[in-house]
Amino acid sequence: MDDHTSPDCGNFVRPQTGLLGGDPMEVINTLEVKYAQKFYGPFQAVKDINLTVEKGEIYALLGHNGAGKSTLIKMILGLVKASAGMIEIEGLNYDAKNKEIKKRVGYLPERMNFYDNLTAWETISFYAKLKGITRKRCEEVLEQVGLREAEHRRVGTFSKGMQQRLGLAQAIIHKPDLLVLDEPTTGLDPIGILELKAMIRNWNKEGTTILFSSHNLNDVEELAQRIGIMNRGEMIAQGSLAELQDRLGLPTKIKIDLAVIPVDLEEILVGKRIKTFQLEGKTVSIDCPKDKKTQVITAVMDGMLKVLDLRLEEPGLNSIYQNIMAE
Ligand SMILES: Nc1ncnc2c1ncn2[C@@H]1O[C@H](COP(=O)(O)OP(=O)(O)OP(=O)(O)O)[C@@H](O)[C@H]1O
Ligand SMILES: [Mg+2]
């Protein structure tokens, strides 16, 4: 990796800590990526990415096919050499502490290849031996990923979802601090997806920081505390759902169920300074700027309309993603 004084990475210099100056209380993030770039010949797959994942966070990478998610993930894992920039895991970089980092990171690749002739048990034992891990822990991880009953079957006979579970088992067997999952729900059935989400939440509760990529917006919305959206190698937006919503200025939908629809509904609403609304049955939907919610609700509830019920719908990741990609 080029060092961080390369002009390509904006002369980034890591702040000094401890006795040498800087803030001695500085928290070391689990993952820090600064100005990371990757060229494949003349093609730039990753462009000046900055990304921080704090300890204990679940962070999701989103983006169309070919956006650069897997390339960035492989750079973070030290499997693809960055053309420029800086990547640190728990304050360590691959140039100096490659082996140490590998002990702290677990990885489920996009496509995992196993030896078809080995059983699940033999496969996991193989990874365990490499990492100096006990038999008891092998049993524990196979149990966690739901493969205990199939552990003596050959992996060649496994369904895609079972292979994915085995991939997860090898990723967590050494209890990594940072777990990186590249499209972990691919190939899982709906129950498998629910189970995987529960596993991710559990590992996270036990202290594992998680970075994952996905095309499934519902999974991302449910699991991730922060989201990074990539497009053509660039990180085009980052933040929590609320932060992304704020950035885009997306409205909140207020849905009001009325007992009766007055003939002069439009006039009444315009009188309350509500100019655009949709009516479906007896439900009025109003797109309301986030900071005007209370004003609109107060106006609607002033007694002129017979309100039965009222709901707020914040924009989901679906509309946030579509809006960001259209910017
Ligand atoms: N080894 C390589 N040599 C040349 N180009 C590559 C290589 N690996 C990836 N690329 C290119 O880099 C770009 C980013 O690919 P990447 O696999 O990182 O995308 P992705 O966001 O993971 O996509 P997907 O959602 O389909 O998995 C693509 O245009 C891809 O063709
Ligand atoms: Mg990918």
UniProtKB/TrEMBL annotation:
One of its GO terms (molecular function) is ATP hydrolysis activity. PROSITE patterns: ABC_TRANSPORTER_1 (PS00211), ABC_TRANSPORTER_2 (PS50893). Residues 28-257 form the ABC transporter domain. Signal peptide: none annotated. Keywords: ATP-binding, Nucleotide-binding, Transport. Gene3D superfamilies: P-loop containing nucleotide triphosphate hydrolases. Belongs to the ABC transporter superfamily. This is ABC transporter domain-containing protein.
